[in-house]
Write a structure and sequence with these properties.
The complex is a heterodimer of chains A (about 280) and B (about 220). Chain A is α/β, with parallel strands linked by helices and about 280 residues long. Helices cover about 30% and strands about 25% of the residues of chain A. Chain A has ten helices and ten strands. Chain A has a six-stranded mixed β-sheet with strand order 6-7-8-3-9-10, sandwiched between helices. Chain A has a four-stranded antiparallel β-sheet with strand order 2-1-4-5, with helices on one face. Chain A is globular and about 55 Å long. Chain A starts with about 25 loop residues before the first strand and ends in a 5-residue tail after the last helix. The N terminus of chain A is likely disordered. Chain B is mainly alpha-helical and about 220 residues long. In chain B, about 80% of the residues lie in helices and about 0% in strands. The mean pLDDT of chain B is about 95. Chains A and B meet through helix 8 and helix 10 of A and helix 3 of B.
């Protein structure tokens, strides 16, 4: 499935059309991860349903960033690291023997905290880069696909007259939306975001949150955030992680966001979200 | 370590203000019934004037609550606490209104004698006050079971209300000259019955506060 799939052949339809492309659910089964001998997370089992936003919250050191980097096999790109357990994308384990991690990352895209447009490339090239790198062919022309991606993130009108300018010439919020466009251009099914608005001002933050609310119709979104109010605003499901006494991150509680923020089951969740954790 | 010391203090302050309001309302309900029993015009006027104070206390509590909601982003138990305070305060203020309404009936009586010595109406008022005090205990101790059992006592007040109503009807049928005073006493009975209903609403909020569920406790068939 991973070896033969051409992701962009199911091309992204323009936002105005009714878009019925299915997104895929992501399910982890007892994910544990190590940096050398040090275990960072243990037995995290979590389902991120298709077409919904799952937020992962928790204090610094709880392992949430480590966890999200396991979801598209980014963790193993660091030296001397290890992952155990399964991550099922629509039922298929991305850690399977014959699975190419590069193809995994095409279907499960990632956006990081610090906006990181390719510094030597123009706005146009930044979006096109993913398409070119992945050698994707499609009925649509490259400019069409770039337009689609930029339009999808609400950036087209702001950049249409300066596509040749460097990606880094944009504001922080725009750069981040550019990075999202770059990730979307290759038509992933899942979008992972690790503190995507951590470096942005409040207005840019809210624009990204609005965008994520729209994108969840077509993608499965998993977001790590230390901003609890953000998690409350934008997610459907919230998962709370905490490092245990041995400093290994575990999943404490997961549930509907509405329930987590009005009546969590675990005392530790209540303490964290009421700001009494210390 | 008190991480949110300021917020904790403000939350305590908010709840203390609500408990004070509850105590004032309890006294107003008792005072209004005493004024009626003895046709004490001075006391009645006092209760009417004091109702304005109850109203302004209610608004002060609401303002505090809104400020906390806007500035502290409360979640989970803190959020439910503030919401419970908001709704309970509204119920308390309405209960104060009913007490003031009873006091106004005393004023309307003027020089006229009571239709009959009051027995059931004070009993109703005592029951309603007892329910209020124990509901407040349930709030302070976060005792959902107590809240539920207090709410169930509303049936006792309803039964007394029906009894009073039937008795007053009898007076009116026998002697049309009693209609005025009998009607006033019916209003008093209605006021006290509504006070007990409001306590039931407070009990619903206490259960919500404790376990996050909103459940109807007023099983009256209208």
């Amino acid at each position: 499935m991973f070896l033969s799939r051409s992701a962009v052949s199911e091309s992204i339809e323009p936002p105005v059309a009714v878009d019925s492309r299915p997104s895929s659910s992501l399910e982890t089964r007892r994910i544990s991860a190590w940096y050398g001998d040090r275990q960072a997370i243990r037995d995290v089992s979590l389902t991120c349903p298709a077409g919904q936003v799952t937020a992962i919250i928790g204090p610094s050191g709880c392992g949430k960033s480590t966890f999200i980097r396991c979801l598209n096999r980014m963790h193993e790109t660091l030296p001397d690291t290890r992952v155990e357990g399964q991550v099922l994308l629509d039922g298929t384990d991305i850690f399977g023997e014959k699975i190419d991690p590069v193809l995994v990352r095409r279907r499960i895209g990632m956006v990081f905290q610090r906006p990181n447009p390719f510094p030597t490339m123009s706005i146009f090239e930044n979006v096109a880069a993913g398409l070119r790198l992945n050698g994707v062919s499609t009925g649509k022309s490259l400019p069409d696909l770039v337009w689609q991606a930029l339009n999808r993130v609400g950036l087209w009108d702001e950049v249409k007259d300066k596509l040749r300018l460097p990606g880094t010439s944009l504001s922080g919020g725009q750069q981040q939306r550019l990075c999202i466009a770059r990730a979307l251009a290759i038509a992933p099914e899942v979008l992972l975001l690790d503190e995507p608005t951590g470096a942005l001002d409040p207005v840019a933050t809210l624009k990204i949150e609005e965008l994520l609310g729209e994108l969840k119709n077509d993608y499965t979104i998993v977001i790590v955030t230390h901003n609890m109010q953000q998690a409350a605003r934008i997610s459907d499901i919230t998962a709370f992680m905490l490092a245990d006494a041995t400093h290994i991150g575990t999943l404490v509680e997961v549930g509907q966001t509405r329930q987590i923020f009005t009546n969590p089951r675990d005392r530790r969740t209540e303490e964290y979200i009421t700001g009494r954790f210390g | 370590m008190p991480i949110r010391e300021t917020f904790d203090r403000e939350l305590r302050h908010l709840q203390d203000d609500m408990l004070l309001l509850a105590s004032l309302v309890d006294q107003a309900v008792g005072g209004a019934m005493d004024a009626l029993r003895y046709l004490d015009q001075t006391k009645a006027r006092q209760i009417i004037i004091q109702d304005a104070e109850l109203n302004s206390k209610r608004f002060a509590i609401e303002e505090q609550a809104v400020t906390l909601l806007a500035t502290q982003q409360p979640a989970a138990g803190d959020l439910r606490t503030i919401l419970a305070v908001l709704t309970i305060t509204g119920e308390l203020e309405r209960m104060g209104d009913y007490a003031a309404g009873t006091a106004r009936i005393v004023v309307m009586h003027g020089d006229q004698e009571l239709l009959k010595p009051l027995v059931d109406l004070p009993r109703m008022a005592d029951q309603a006050r007892s329910m209020l005090r124990r509901a407040i205990d349930a709030y302070v101790n976060r005792d959902a079971a107590l809240a539920q059992s207090v709410a169930a006592e509303d049936d006792l007040v309803d039964a007394l209300h029906d009894q009073v109503y039937r008795e007053l009807l009898t007076y009116m049928i026998q002697d049309p000259l009693t209609i005025d005073r009998a009607t006033w006493l019916m209003w008093v009975a209605h006021n006290v019955e509504r006070i007990a209903d409001r306590v039931t609403n407070i009990c619903e909020r206490i259960v919500f506060l404790v376990n996050g569920r909103l459940e109807e406790m007023n099983t009256k068939v209208d």
